[in-house]
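worker-3 :: picked TonB-dependent receptor plug domain-containing protein
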Amino acid sequence: MIKTTMVLVMICCVCIVKGQFNGSKSGRISLEDFLKSYMQATNAEIVAREGLVKRRGDPVDLKQLPRDPDSALVYVFNNQRNLTFEITGPKIISVIKKQGNKYIPFPNPAGCPLLRGIIINTEGEDLSEASLTIPGSKNGTTSNNEGKFSITRCRGEKLVVSHIGYKQQEIEWEETNWLTIKLEKKISVNEAHTVTGYRTEGKYTGLPVPYKYKPDLAINTNLFENIKGQYSSLTNHSSSGAPGASQILNIRGYSSIGQVAGWSNRPSDEPLVIINGVPINLRPINVFPAMGRNPQGEGISGTGFNPLSGINPLDIESIQVLKDVANTSIYGSRGSNGVIVIRTKKASDTSLQITFSSFTGVGFSTRAMTPMNTRQFLDMRYQAF
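worker-3 :: tokens ->
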């Protein structure tokens, strides 16, 4: 009779959570088995890193385990040396490592009921993907496609609801398990911008390529040779190797294989160049009269001279490249290939500045040609004719 009574007492101590725990002869089970039984008894979901509970969990003593599942959970983790837990969502419990020996208390389950509800706008339409958070905690959720949500909220906690395009709403605690939350649209006034292309003051309406021109670094008399490689969208090369030869510029890429009528070796996709508000014709200039059969002048290979070669690079204040539609729109079709805006320096009454620059070099002939005498010249002419 005494042996039978001891067996019945042991069974009562083991089956304390709705008959879910199966104790061993010593009245101890692993933490992993305890959590499995707790999930079956409460329909809760327990989340932990793989192998964490098995490696760090201490055995659970079933002799003094409370009958209430939530109280049993608190009791078990209060006696764990390495692990604790926290509630991260409705019916979701995360098992984590203890922060040293610090005790992390479990919130009173009776004070954290599950709150359900729906989120709508002023027209009564359901709002999906609305964010619901509780300030000061990691608890949060979002509404589903029907605008419905569920979240665990403890007594006294506020609920913050937000959605893109709607005003944020803060809801105080109230004794209810259902909420219908109505969000109002948020009207924002955007700044008005006028497309002006290029202007001296103010912001650009598009995306100009910025570059701060530094005259003191100008080592070439050719303006565009000095800025070569400074603009990611600007390509330029000389039309020939002659001194002062015209430059071939391109901003938006080569869009034509033809030539401008009357222009030798000049493509038809060059940008518009504006200096101090005045458009400049990039047509090559021939400063020499026609010589022989070369209408362009001798020594320039028929390409002409660069019209911008007369600008002193030291007089340039800023250079900007406009390549987007917003900036080039005010120039019409002439700006279809991009625009290069150049500003030169102006007089200033603030301070007096004197700039002096000089260049020196040594030149000599590598080999002097020996002139012909009279007899050699006559023989050359005789052979020629």
